[in-house]
Amino acid sequence: MFCFSTSINKRNLIYGVFDSEVNLMSAVEEVREKGMEVFDCYTPFPVHHLDTAMGISRTRLSIAAFLCGLTGFCLGLLLQFYMMVFDWPMNIGGKPSDYHMLPSMVPVVFECTILCTAFGLAFLFFFRNKLGHGVRPDILDLRQTDDHLLIAFDADTLDLNAKNELVVILNKNKVLSTHEYVGQYAVNHGGVHA
Amino acid sequence: MGHHHIEIKQEKFEFTSRSKMLSVVLLTLGIILSVIGIYQLKANDAHSSTVHATEASANTHADAHETVAAGHGEHSKPWTTRFWANMLVNSYYFLLFAVGALFFVALNYVANAGWAVLVKRIAEGISGFIPIGLILLFITLYFGGTQLYHWMHYEHQGLKEGMEGYDKILAGKSPFLNSKFLFLGVPLFILIWYCFRIILRRLSLREDAEGGTTFFRKSTRFSAAFLVIFGFSFSTLVWLMIMSVDAHWYSTIYTINNFAVMFVTSTTVICFFTIYLKSKGYMELVSSEILHDLGKFMFAFCVFWAYTWLAQYLLIWYANIHEEVVYFDARLHGYFRPIFFINLFMNFFIPFLILMMRNAKRNPKSLLVAGSIILIGHWFDVYLMIMPGVVGESSGLGLLELGMPIAFAGIFIFVAQYCISKANLYAINHPYIMESATYDVGP
Question: Is the full-model pTM beyond 0.90?
Answer without folding.
Answer: no
